[in-house]
## 1
Amino acid sequence: QLKEVFSKLGIEEIPALGETFDPNKHNAVMHIEDETLGENVIAELFQVGFAMGEKVIRFAMVKVAN
């Protein structure tokens, strides 16, 4: 139900897992070395982030590889 309410308000989840790290949308709290992942790729999502249009409401908390 919460996602439905957010959708009506124009609030969207920030894509993170498998995406390239963007400091304007993501908050990196850990770093790992992983040969299977590319440079600055998000390896794990700890907390979902939300944005309303271009304004970030809460940054996504992530672990970044390489």
## 2
Amino acid sequence: MKRFQLKTLILKGGLAAFALSTALLSGCAGPQVADYAAEQPVLDMRQYFSGTLDAYGLFTDRSGKVVKRFTVVMKCNWQGPPGMETGVLDEDFTYSDGTKQRRIWTLKRQPDGRFIGTADDVVGEATGQEKG
């Protein structure tokens, strides 16, 4: 086989392997918001995060061992016309080690239906979307 043909075969083989690995990895990308569009009942952020809510959670290390638990009481309210709402989630956390933390989120609905959330003690913005 000529040297040029061998390089072409190696290049084509490498590109095929790259394309296959990219396709396989993109299949592992995880769920997308659109995957839940047909689910019932439909999530309505304004209705779900309304009034006072109690929640709980935990933190785990890499092995899955629980390292800290928490409870949170959220006081939630919304203002503004439908489609242009601004919500405030005032969260009071109590951790299993006795520490306490307060975080206040401001959620703004965007024209495309997404939400952008900000809090003074969080760097950057959180984004979310409701579907299904």
## 3
Amino acid sequence: MEETKSHLFALIFCGGGGTRLWPFSREDRPKQFLKIKGSKSLLRETFERILPVVDMERIYLVTVPGYTDEIAQELPEVS
């Protein structure tokens, strides 16, 4: 696994118009920031699922400028 792990990258897409889970998800609070199954957001759950497979420095978050502060609060360990 470690041999494979050094070759993998992960992209997590974090953005959108907040229309798919409307009325719970809105443009100012899209689904990745919602806590649907418990105390963790979908973004946090996704990050934690990927972490055992991909080194943290190879995980990239793709978003729009309006969500960068919220993502930094949600995942402070990601630069």
